[in-house]
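Q: I'm writing up a methods section and want to include an example of the input and output format. Could you take the sequence below and give the corresponding predicted structure tokens, formatted cleanly so I can copy it straight into the document?
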Amino acid sequence: MNRTQIIAIVLVKNEDLFIKTVLKNILLFCDRIYVADHRSTDKTPQIIKELATKYSQIEYRVINHVSESHDMIADYAGSDTWVMGVDGDEVYDPQGLKRFKEEILSGKYNRFFKILGNVFNIQRLDSQGHSARGYLTPPCRSMTKLYNFAAIDAWPPPCPERLHGGKVHFRVGFSHGVACDIFKERSWEESPFRCLHFCFQSRSSLDKIKGDQGAVIRKGPGERNLWAYNIKSFILSRLGLKKDIPYYKQSYYMRGPIVEKDISAFDL
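A: Here is the clean output for your methods example:
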């Protein structure tokens, strides 16, 4: 009898400030962690290679295009596998994931294609005080990614990046809309599937440019290859209309009131 497994596909580029915590916090949750590095030039490769030497479930690979990150997990389609997409600015609660893993292995979520968790979009971080200020889901959008590959027969390349786009071949009873929105059902404090999203923070020792309220202006690996997004940003910049914080970040991750939370559980 096949055993349910959980794997992660981590897409990174210049993430040396958080990547060690990002990976260590999902170690006990995942049976395998694939790290796709889109040619980092900071200390990210060194940090990941050191962790891979110590923890056998981490596999490190340098990629030339972000689409290769999807190629790394496409063959899991049709197997009893949950695939978690992780970015270099997403730090999960390790104790929460321990509880969440028990729920997943019990079969509680087998009827869903994907699960969306709770997110705290960090605007201000107080590492010494183990607290942070920012915006919660809801009303912000959840960007956590956990997919049930037993619900599909295939998710073949090409895809712009892992777990995005392409033509998904669903099994009967499943579709993109068959999702469990944990972030709508459980509070931040109660959720076992929650992460700190450092979307407004520096993620690399190479980051230098900051905008409104100290927010770092940078794109993720996938955004660097979105030609429509890049053209729009160029036009807005030429017209003098481009904001320090990109519009999509404001609309997705800056909704509702700013709140302060204790983040000591995240082992930063």
